[in-house]
Amino acid sequence: MDDDELIAAVAGGDDTALRELFARHAPWLAARLRGVLPASEVEDVLQETFLAVWRGAGRYRPEGSAGGWVWGIARRQAAQWLRRRGPAELLLPALTAADGRNPDDPAEAALSRAEVACAVSALGPEGGPARETWRLMYVEDRSVAEVAELMGVPEGTVKSRAYRARELMRAALRRHEPVGREAANDR
Amino acid sequence: MNVELTELTRKFGHTRAVAGVSLEAGPGVFGLLGPNGAGKTSLLRMMATVLPPTSGTLHLLGRDPGGYGPRREIRRRLGYLPQNLGYYPGFTVTDFVEYFALLKDMPPRQVPRAVATAIEHVGLGDRARSKLRTLSGGMLRRVGIAQAIVNEPELLLLDEPTAGLDPEQRVSFRALLRDFGQWSTVIVSTHLVEDVAAACTEVMLMDAGRIVFHGTPADLIARGEGHGVGDAPLERGYSAVLTAARS
Amino acid sequence: MTGDELTGGYEGLAGRVLGPHDVDLDRVWLGVAAQVWRRQPGPVERAAGRLLRSPGLARALMTTPSLLLGWVIATATVLLAGVGVTLGTGTPWVGLIAPALAAAGIAYAYGPGIDPAWELSQSMAISDRMVLLVRALAVFGLNAALGLAASAASGAAAAVTFGWLVPMTAICALALATATVTRSPNVGVAAGATGWVIAILAGMDAEGQLTAAITDSAFIVPYLALAICCGAIVLLVTRIPRGAS
């Protein structure tokens, strides 16, 4: 059964479908949340997430992506937890990164960073061409000429690699699919 | 010591089903072997506080089950699977395990999680809300095992638990026994000798109401050396001990 | 394909579900399953649990065969018929049938004849004797309440309206004692019904009146004596002898 059918079954009160959904999605959700929350809280948030899935499966519309819908629920639960615990809990390397901006909602920002981190991993392994290009151009803010010199490739190649990196990240962020699976296995 | 029996006897009319059994058992998995009519079930029923002994002393979990209060305390920490366990056909798996969890006086707040744990532990997680009348014999046996372990008992008594289980399920069941045997006393009455070999730290062989052998599986195998009857080493030991006891 | 083949062992989710190494996903699933699988007790059961200070006893009570909705409706229907007949003929039939109905309900409250998991119930911390007591009282109380309502509705005199409570106690005790000793609820019902018919006939013989069994105060002492004897028998049969005598 695909995810849409499973969620429909859950809406009909089938607990074995929920069990299958859990088996499929809990691992990558846990990996993504682990970047933002401590382990024991990941467990609590995941538990609340799947209970919410159980109760709210009737509201799912199959045009969306099942993974994205579940992540949306998990995200809300995590954000609630983060807000309840207060600013002290948000001492995450992700937040203290030096971009200097003060996010309006630290919880949302932390979660956005988790999403971005997962999307970045879609660019391939660290040191690979797409990822390296992205890092040099968008994190270190270098010009196309500088990047071409540092990587030893023509400027045209740099531009097309940058374009490809943007496309990959856009797709990853849009899908909210388990691109974090590879990252989870790396831990 | 979780179990201390001294010269325990049980008579039915003129028949002595259990004829003077003495036993001490701490944590571990104990196999109880023997032919039909040897008294295994009566012994287990006495340890489950269902059948009173005729004579001898019985101490379970440090208490004497003769008194109402101590007996209640023993039963809270006891898990028992009778040889013939009936089922309420209209109950679901969860209903059944939960019913006995409540009757074991478990704190109500702990019950839902304990029930879910027990059901997953016996591999019935995808049948949790199925009615018992829709289950096969092997699954019903596993439901019985689930109610026995739901309260994490310190004394777990299982009478022919693997009846109806296929070989793969028996393997998983033995792993469950070993888990529990780490910290509680598990006594398994069975006529399947291979169950004993794989999971038990000690083996007792009963015949005509008496314990005729008490030792490790290796000891029992040693007794079978040179004995002709039996296909496997443990079976030969079993047969050798019985022959010696009856001569 | 049977369910046994589908589950294939006790892995459950373990072995299939691997997340970050310090997140225990099996534990998470158990938390979810605990809430998804649990049964929510109804208001009556919750109230009974508070009253009895034991959710286990409340659950045992709610699963009494003669307290199930079908049975209660059947009892009420028969009593209603009795009301109709009483209003029609003037003879207080309600008082004559209520004890027999109650006896049947009590015989079906407990015991190896109706409880397939009987042996297991005997090893429970909440003892089968407690369960019996609570169930018997509940069935008796319910039948008494229904009977009194029916009696009042049929316009019977006060002496007749309450007069059958004592014989009902006696007949119920008889039915329960017989059911417990013979381990058969059917035998219990038969004993209760037979006993009641004998009492009615004896009353008719002595006084010439059909309702003598419930109105004649001379019967009260024998009824109570029977009730106490049968009660003692039930207690005796359900005990576990003390110690290792």
Explain the overall architecture:
- Chain A has 187 residues and is mainly alpha-helical.
- Chain A has 2 domains: 3-90, Orthogonal Bundle (Rna Polymerase Sigma Factor, Chain: A); 122-186, Arc Repressor Mutant, subunit A.
- Helices cover 69% and strands 0% of the residues of chain A.
- In chain A, helix 4 (66-85) crosses helix 5, helix 5 packs across helix 8 and helix 6 crosses helix 8 (155-175).
- The longest helix of chain A has 21 residues, at 155-175.
- With 247 residues, chain B is α/β, with parallel strands linked by helices.
- Chain B has helices at 40-47, 68-76, 93-103, 111-121, 137-149, 167-181, 193-199, 217-223, 233-246, and strands at 3-12, 15-25, 28-33, 55-60, 78-81, 155-159, 185-189, 202-207, 210-215.
- Chain C has 2 domains: 3-37, no CATH class; 44-238.
- In chain C, helix 10 (165-182) packs parallel to helix 13.
- Mean pLDDT of chain C is 80; it is low at 1-11 and 241-245.
- Classes of the chains: A mainly alpha (187), B alpha/beta (247), C mainly alpha (245).
- Chains B and C meet through strand 4, helix 2, helix 3, helix 4 and helix 5 of B and helix 1, helix 2, helix 4 and helix 7 of C.
Rounded to the nearest angstrom, the distance between the terminal CA atoms of chain A is: 29 Å
CATH fold name of the largest domain in chain A:
Rna Polymerase Sigma Factor, Chain: A
The parts of chain B where pLDDT drops under 50 for at least 5 residues are: none
Shape of chain B: globular
* Total count of strands of chain A: 0
- The proportion of residues in beta strands of chain A is under 5%
Rg of chain A computed from alpha carbons, rounded to a whole number of angstroms: 19 Å
The largest contact between protein chains, plus residue counts on each side, is:
B-C, 69 and 46 residues
| Unreliably modeled segments of chain A | 91-102, 177-187
The CATH superfamily of the largest domain in chain A bears the name RNA polymerase sigma factor, region 2, helix turn helix motif
Number of strands of chain B: 9
Q: What order do the strands of the largest sheet of chain B run in, or round the barrel if closed?
A: 5-6-7-3-8-9
Share in helix of chain A: 55-70%
In one word, what is the shape of chain A?
elongated
What is the beta-strand fraction of chain B?
Answer: 15-25%
Largest sheet of chain A: none
Q: What share of the residues of chain B lie within helices?
A: 25-40%
Give the assembly state of these chains. heterotrimer
Number of domains of chain A: 2
Helices of chain B, by number, come to: 9
Rg of chain B (C-alpha, Å): 18 Å
